[in-house]
Structures
1.
Amino acid sequence: MSVRVDPSVQAELTHYGGDTAVKCFNCGNCTAACALTDQDAVFPRRYIRYIQLGLREKMLGSLDPWLCYYCGDCSDTCPREAQPGKLMMAGRRWLISMYDWTGISRLMYRSPRWEASFIAIVALAVLALFTLPSDFGYGLLAAHPEARESVNLAYFAPKDVVHRWDNVLGLVLGALLLSNAGRMVYRVSRQGPPVPLSCYLSELGVMIVQGLTQIRWRGCATGARKHWLRHFFLVTSYVSMFALVMIFLHWFQVEDTGFHWTAYIGYYATAVLLVTTGWIIIDRLRKREQIHKESDLTDWAFVGLLFLTGLSGILLHIARLLDMPMTTYALYTAHLMIDVPLLVLQVPFGKWSHILYRPLALYLLAARRRAESRRPAGVIEGSPLPVRS
Amino acid sequence: MSEIKRNWREDLKIFRERMGGVTQERKDWQKEQRDYSKAISGVLEKGARTVPEIAEASGLPSDKILWHLMAMKKYGKIAEAGRSGDYFRYELKGGQS
Amino acid sequence: MAEIKQEYDGLVLGAGIAGMQAALDLAGQGFDVLLVERAPSIGGVMVGLNKVFPTLDCSSCICTPRMAEVAHHERITLLTYTELKHLERTARGFSVTLVKKPRYVVEEDCIGCAKCELACNVVVPHEFDYGLGAHAAVYIPHGNAIPQVAVLDPQYCMFDGACARACPTDCIDFTQQPEEINVQAGAVILATGLKLVPLDVKKEYGGGKYVNVMNPLAMERLQSPNGPYGHVMRPSDGKIPRSIAYVQCAGSRDKSIGVPYCSRICCMYALKQGIMIRQHLPETEVTIYHMDIRAFGKGYEQFYRRAVGEGIRVVKAKVARITEEPNKDLKLRVELIDEGGRVAEIRHDLVVLSQGVIPGWKPDGAAPVRIDEDGFFLIPEMAARPANSSHEGVFVAGVATGPKDIPDAIVEAGAAAMEAAMYLGRSQARAGGVQ
């Protein structure tokens, strides 16, 4: 089989933060240094080779970047300082932008200006939503002077309306993310022999467990416990916040200065969100660990907006309890001007899409392995080196 | 040859002072050497043995047994006595076994 | 110890194969040479090697005649156990300050009978055998040492006087102190050789922690007829190894430890050691894990083919990690690139780290020469004058200028001697002209 070398891929990867593939001389140290690699999960070298040769199809159909959690052991010991971990990260960004059919992701990753513009556009759209219509936001407030004396969100952002928009947004983002993930499944299934449906069905558990816990991360050699635990708490935080907003908004959004017990869940979520994202920001500024050394604007936007979401949310809560009506409405607007761009841009087009891609990759790998285990052994494998025991 | 007759006993006293005397470090080193020689000789008195056998019988680590054994072999206290599998056997020199 | 004159034509620093050759080639042209060696014996690394590649000639059989020639040459004065303290340019050449370390043995009186060594009650790890063998606290450096003169290691001495009592020539001298020697030299040749990167420089290989992970020069000693064990055995328990791994580029071509260059000799010595192992132990498997085999010299590629033909396994894989089993076997984690990129952990009895070559000595202000970014002496005109350092009148030879094999080191030594001779000729002519 002939291979057509395409040097443009290496150049392309540099736009996604992967500018070191050219240094790699394919010794394989990275693959063997990684604590997560085994028989058929062999990265990063294989993927770097794809980048060097420009094998787009192979790259698009590869699960390798998703199997890496960037502990940095490979980059620390790479004899060429080719930073394999960073290349895996760039690979993930590249895949996100390739699987996204709208092209928005590609624009955001390749251009900080585009990313800032998109954030600004969505934020302004939210602002417009609060200022332009007469039956919502400041328009609605104008008709209800009493709500300017004392907090009453029913005359600013009625929860039924908000809830309806929540659901619409959720459906749209979910559909976008799922359609992108569908493209991933298609690309991956085109590589290697076909996997029977029964294998997909019997490995569904992997998807659920990894989706909820990302437990595989704990297998990393360096920093795994700290990073995984922090990430896990962060997930519990936004999952509970997601549930409060998407399902239980009726109770969570108290419209006057009253208190409802769902606030306790909100406190937990906010505290964890602020602590973990604040901690991550500090780590990313310190750049001590490999995982924190390479942050581009998309990373900063993600963690920064998460932090600001938590901050504006808790301030909003306090202002409402203190019965500061105008401050409350302003913070409500600000909170959504932060949160909506975060969700709209990061879930289907950005870093947050890993919420689906990572467990999906492990799931597809598990299904493929099951299919392989059913095939007669020794057909594909070369003769292994004898291991004396 | 130089003509000065050295009074080495006096010189040695000064040398010893200058080098910090018989420190604990030196004592420990010599003790280890004695302990290992004694342990090795003790085991080999019963016959030729391999390094793992000496280590097991004496309860001492095999890498240090090997090192001290090789030192004793170099200075003529021990000789090789054939092989047992992947290991050489050693015996006390003089043929006593 | 021969009489030290006030003035020499040439000073050669380092009496390994390159330094000895440079001294012989300079002295052979009628110049008086002072040859200075830091160790108690001359011969450098080469005298401790088992064989040379690709001819498989006995290394010490080539080295020792040179050592003897150096020692007996009427125009060469030998100073062993001596280090350079300072070297600086003067109107007439170089003013050199040397420090002779105390042997605690009077060199001219010692007859090399080793009675002191046999009388001594302490044993000490032997540097010449990389710690695998032992010597007494007072000892003849090794069987091929020149001079055959004892040296006392005060670190382990128990001060019982056994050596002095046993000495038939009354040459043990406890009063010796470091002695400063000042000479003038017309030209200087630096042939300060090599050392290996520290065994523990790559933490993931466990060198220095796992006893069966060893230095390639230690393996040379194990294979040498006068080696510490007399056989190839592994240090943990004396087992005759049945499976030996060579980890190539363990400290060279590795930017992560600051040694980005190729050490040039490792591929060949690994193949050579493998051939020798399989000649003595035909049932022992030898596996060389490499990034690529660099067989660059005359006959080297054929040597590589021969090694493969003799059953040495050459596997393309950079070893990422070594772990120790409870029985002190070692497991190497690699990606088997030629087998479709399979990750495997492969067990071996003994592991040799093909450690990178780094300069054996750094001037640190002691000599007015500049260092290149790789740490070796800077050669300003590499293509035109490869033996000339950055300082006029100072010449360089051997591994001190960069990793190289023995033939290249010898050739370079000849070149340095020739450059030094021409330089001396020019300066003598100038001095004559002034008169």
Note: The two ends of chain B are 46 Å apart (CA to CA).
2.
Amino acid sequence: MYAFDYTRPASLAEAIEAMRGDEAKALAGGQTLIPTLKQRLASPATLVDLTGITEIRGICLKDGAVSVGAGTRHAEVAASADVRRLIPALSHLAGHIGDPQVRNRGTLGGSLANNDPSACYPAAVLGLGATVHTSAGRAIAADDYFQGMFTTALDEGELITSVDFPVPEKAAYMKFVQPASRFALTGVFVAKFAGGVRVAVTGASEGGVFRWAEAEAALGRSFAVGALDGVEASPDGMIGDLHGTPEYRAHLVGVMTRRAVEAAA
Amino acid sequence: MPKVSMTVNGKAVSGEVEGRTLLVQFLREGLGLTGTHVGCDTSQCGACVVHVNGESVKACTVFALGCEGAEVRTIEGMANPDGSLGVIQAAFQEHHGLQCGFCTPGMVMSAADLLKQNASPSEREVREWLEGNICRCTGYHNIVKAIMAAAATLRGEQVAAE
């Protein structure tokens, strides 16, 4: 790991100020960033540790949505009584990220800012049509937030402060785990709202998390596994690596979508 | 260099560290507490698991400076006050939950976190909880047995070893 200056601001205002520094990088739970630093794939001049900022932690209900602070750790989301009651699929997703020690450190904001193409949280945020709030005062719709693998709508130095998740009628997340890394080899979040169905897929596409429009249309007509008969994901643009071919992942998209619908229905 | 202060196994400690100093480096090299092991150094194997403010974390994936003011507990803090093995440690010995012993400190710390949250875990819950702890010797069977037995002992039940 290259050397860097370390700072741990106690407030969001101080963090915003620290992020103005040259080559400053925010550290959330560190479960991705610290391994990345060890591999010397990142070399910030200053690391701004966000774990001391209490104002971006915690879960509350806001205008019928579940608002989760960006600094809230996966274990806290998984254990939250409000999340369990209103969006059990989100609790389940958070409770199956990585392993218990990762869940005790990793945060929602960190996962979303990184936007790993195989991370679980992007599927929930896109699948539920959540809104991402930032330190610049912006409220970014999930559909605008994710802009490709490791790419987001965040500007330089802009920090996520909270995410508002609308409460669906039904939802489920199913992931096919890559057993070594615990990331999703393919994961699908399905959510049914009064106004329609959203299907978000992670782990499969070279473009990062995406909505599967054909499945959404079919499930919008009838929210049942049978509605997906003949609906197939295309392997074009899917990830091909030592864990699976694009065709394998395209097939998994269909399988995990069906399992998610079954679990939600 | 910046200074960090924390409580480790009930004792106030402090030391000078770099920004990039990991908690596990501070424990092992700064404090000489070498019971916490570094296995993979890539956040996967769990040999370095310690408790920070009561929660299990991978000490190779936490910065020492991030633990300023924290209560840290390591394997050295798991024995009884008279120096005899704590309940979980004794159960690992009794049920042969280790062979080479390299992963054991992390296994014990991880198990302690589980049993604090769930006094009566099912075998499946124990296995799922150990997802972040890798053992290359035992095949996990006796580790799971040891944790189930430790849970029973902590609940006040008697368990016979096979």
Note: The interface with chain A takes residues 2, 18-20, 22, 41-44, 46, 49, 55-58, 61-63, 65-66, 68, 110, 113-114, 129, 131-133 of chain B (CB under 8 Å).
